[in-house]
Amino acid sequence: MDDVVFFYGGIEPLVRIVVIGTLAYFSLLILLRISGKRTLAQLNAFDFVITIAIGSTFGRLITAKGVSLAESVTAFFTLIFLQYLVSWFIVRSSKFDKLITADPSLLYFRGQFLRKAMKEQRVTQSQLLAVVRENKIGALEHVEAIVMESAGTIAIVKKETSEETPISPVLNNIPEI
Asked: N or C: which end of the chain has fewer CB within 10 A?
Protein backbone atom coordinates (compact mmCIF):
# COMPACT_ATOMS: atom_id res chain seq x y z
CA MET A 1 0.00 0.00 0.00
CA ASP A 2 1.23 3.47 -0.83
CA ASP A 3 2.22 5.78 1.96
CA VAL A 4 -0.13 8.65 2.59
CA VAL A 5 1.52 11.99 1.84
CA PHE A 6 0.02 15.03 3.49
CA PHE A 7 2.25 17.96 2.57
CA TYR A 8 5.04 17.09 0.14
CA GLY A 9 5.83 13.84 -1.65
CA GLY A 10 8.81 14.94 -3.64
CA ILE A 11 9.38 16.69 -6.92
CA GLU A 12 8.39 13.77 -9.21
CA PRO A 13 4.62 13.94 -8.56
CA LEU A 14 4.67 17.70 -9.10
CA VAL A 15 6.58 17.39 -12.37
CA ARG A 16 4.14 14.66 -13.51
CA ILE A 17 1.17 16.94 -12.83
CA VAL A 18 2.74 19.82 -14.78
CA VAL A 19 3.83 17.67 -17.75
CA ILE A 20 0.75 15.44 -18.00
CA GLY A 21 -1.61 18.33 -17.22
CA THR A 22 -0.08 20.45 -19.97
CA LEU A 23 -0.13 17.63 -22.54
CA ALA A 24 -3.70 16.68 -21.62
CA TYR A 25 -4.80 20.30 -21.78
CA PHE A 26 -3.49 20.76 -25.32
CA SER A 27 -4.80 17.33 -26.39
CA LEU A 28 -8.24 18.27 -25.12
CA LEU A 29 -8.10 21.66 -26.85
CA ILE A 30 -7.23 19.99 -30.15
CA LEU A 31 -10.00 17.38 -29.79
CA LEU A 32 -12.57 20.03 -28.87
CA ARG A 33 -11.50 22.21 -31.78
CA ILE A 34 -11.82 19.29 -34.19
CA SER A 35 -15.20 18.25 -32.79
CA GLY A 36 -16.82 21.64 -33.40
CA LYS A 37 -18.70 24.22 -31.41
CA ARG A 38 -21.52 21.90 -30.34
CA THR A 39 -19.28 20.04 -27.89
CA LEU A 40 -18.83 23.23 -25.90
CA ALA A 41 -22.43 24.38 -26.11
CA GLN A 42 -24.61 24.02 -23.06
CA LEU A 43 -27.79 23.07 -24.81
CA ASN A 44 -29.32 20.21 -22.89
CA ALA A 45 -28.72 17.25 -20.59
CA PHE A 46 -26.39 15.28 -22.82
CA ASP A 47 -24.17 18.34 -23.39
CA PHE A 48 -24.05 18.84 -19.62
CA VAL A 49 -23.07 15.19 -19.07
CA ILE A 50 -20.23 15.52 -21.59
CA THR A 51 -18.96 18.69 -19.90
CA ILE A 52 -18.92 17.04 -16.46
CA ALA A 53 -17.37 13.81 -17.75
CA ILE A 54 -14.57 15.64 -19.59
CA GLY A 55 -13.80 17.71 -16.49
CA SER A 56 -13.80 14.62 -14.31
CA THR A 57 -11.52 12.75 -16.72
CA PHE A 58 -9.14 15.69 -16.89
CA GLY A 59 -9.04 16.00 -13.10
CA ARG A 60 -8.40 12.29 -12.62
CA LEU A 61 -5.59 12.31 -15.17
CA ILE A 62 -3.82 15.14 -13.39
CA THR A 63 -4.17 13.74 -9.87
CA ALA A 64 -4.04 9.94 -10.27
CA LYS A 65 -0.62 8.37 -10.76
CA GLY A 66 -1.99 5.24 -12.42
CA VAL A 67 -3.77 6.97 -15.32
CA SER A 68 -1.75 7.49 -18.49
CA LEU A 69 -2.07 10.33 -20.95
CA ALA A 70 -3.01 7.86 -23.69
CA GLU A 71 -5.87 6.48 -21.57
CA SER A 72 -7.21 9.95 -20.86
CA VAL A 73 -6.95 11.13 -24.46
CA THR A 74 -8.83 7.96 -25.45
CA ALA A 75 -11.48 8.80 -22.85
CA PHE A 76 -11.70 12.40 -24.17
CA PHE A 77 -12.05 11.12 -27.73
CA THR A 78 -14.74 8.60 -26.68
CA LEU A 79 -16.77 11.22 -24.83
CA ILE A 80 -16.54 13.74 -27.67
CA PHE A 81 -17.41 11.05 -30.23
CA LEU A 82 -20.47 10.00 -28.20
CA GLN A 83 -21.57 13.63 -27.97
CA TYR A 84 -21.11 13.98 -31.73
CA LEU A 85 -23.06 10.77 -32.33
CA VAL A 86 -25.98 11.82 -30.12
CA SER A 87 -26.15 15.27 -31.73
CA TRP A 88 -25.97 13.64 -35.20
CA PHE A 89 -29.00 11.46 -34.35
CA ILE A 90 -30.87 14.42 -32.84
CA VAL A 91 -30.48 16.44 -36.04
CA ARG A 92 -31.67 13.52 -38.20
CA SER A 93 -34.46 12.03 -36.08
CA SER A 94 -37.29 13.99 -34.49
CA LYS A 95 -38.19 10.97 -32.32
CA PHE A 96 -34.66 10.76 -30.98
CA ASP A 97 -34.67 14.53 -30.48
CA LYS A 98 -37.87 14.28 -28.42
CA LEU A 99 -36.33 11.47 -26.35
CA ILE A 100 -33.14 13.39 -25.54
CA THR A 101 -34.13 17.07 -25.60
CA ALA A 102 -36.65 18.64 -23.25
CA ASP A 103 -39.39 20.84 -24.69
CA PRO A 104 -39.48 24.51 -23.73
CA SER A 105 -42.00 25.39 -21.02
CA LEU A 106 -44.19 28.47 -21.01
CA LEU A 107 -44.10 29.92 -17.47
CA TYR A 108 -45.79 33.29 -17.96
CA PHE A 109 -48.07 34.45 -20.74
CA ARG A 110 -49.90 37.75 -21.22
CA GLY A 111 -50.11 38.78 -17.59
CA GLN A 112 -50.55 35.33 -16.05
CA PHE A 113 -48.03 33.19 -14.24
CA LEU A 114 -48.65 29.57 -15.21
CA ARG A 115 -48.39 28.01 -11.77
CA LYS A 116 -48.62 24.38 -12.87
CA ALA A 117 -45.72 24.80 -15.31
CA MET A 118 -43.74 26.77 -12.73
CA LYS A 119 -44.21 23.98 -10.21
CA GLU A 120 -43.17 21.32 -12.74
CA GLN A 121 -40.02 23.29 -13.59
CA ARG A 122 -39.37 24.12 -9.92
CA VAL A 123 -39.16 27.89 -10.35
CA THR A 124 -40.74 30.56 -8.24
CA GLN A 125 -42.38 33.82 -9.20
CA SER A 126 -39.59 35.73 -7.51
CA GLN A 127 -37.00 33.89 -9.63
CA LEU A 128 -38.88 34.80 -12.80
CA LEU A 129 -39.16 38.41 -11.70
CA ALA A 130 -35.41 38.45 -11.10
CA VAL A 131 -34.83 37.28 -14.69
CA VAL A 132 -37.15 40.05 -15.92
CA ARG A 133 -35.05 42.59 -14.01
CA GLU A 134 -31.80 41.06 -15.30
CA ASN A 135 -33.14 41.73 -18.80
CA LYS A 136 -33.58 45.39 -17.82
CA ILE A 137 -37.35 45.26 -18.05
CA GLY A 138 -38.99 47.42 -15.41
CA ALA A 139 -42.47 45.92 -15.33
CA LEU A 140 -44.33 42.79 -16.35
CA GLU A 141 -46.57 44.98 -18.53
CA HIS A 142 -43.69 44.92 -21.06
CA VAL A 143 -43.44 41.11 -21.04
CA GLU A 144 -45.45 38.94 -23.40
CA ALA A 145 -44.06 35.60 -22.20
CA ILE A 146 -41.44 33.93 -20.06
CA VAL A 147 -40.16 30.60 -21.36
CA MET A 148 -37.85 28.03 -19.81
CA GLU A 149 -35.82 26.80 -22.75
CA SER A 150 -34.61 23.24 -23.33
CA ALA A 151 -31.22 24.01 -21.77
CA GLY A 152 -32.82 25.39 -18.59
CA THR A 153 -32.23 29.03 -19.43
CA ILE A 154 -35.13 31.42 -19.00
CA ALA A 155 -36.01 33.60 -21.97
CA ILE A 156 -38.07 36.76 -21.85
CA VAL A 157 -40.27 37.60 -24.83
CA LYS A 158 -41.07 41.31 -24.81
CA LYS A 159 -44.44 42.64 -25.88
CA GLU A 160 -44.54 43.85 -29.42
CA THR A 161 -44.71 47.48 -30.31
CA SER A 162 -46.43 48.80 -33.41
CA GLU A 163 -43.15 48.72 -35.39
CA GLU A 164 -42.30 45.11 -34.50
CA THR A 165 -43.54 41.89 -36.08
CA PRO A 166 -46.24 39.92 -34.28
CA ILE A 167 -45.07 37.76 -31.38
CA SER A 168 -47.21 34.71 -32.10
CA PRO A 169 -44.73 32.94 -34.44
CA VAL A 170 -42.16 32.93 -31.64
CA LEU A 171 -44.51 31.03 -29.36
CA ASN A 172 -45.90 28.54 -31.89
CA ASN A 173 -43.45 25.78 -30.93
CA ILE A 174 -44.13 25.97 -27.20
CA PRO A 175 -46.39 23.19 -25.93
CA GLU A 176 -49.68 24.10 -24.27
CA ILE A 177 -49.85 23.77 -20.50
From this structure: N
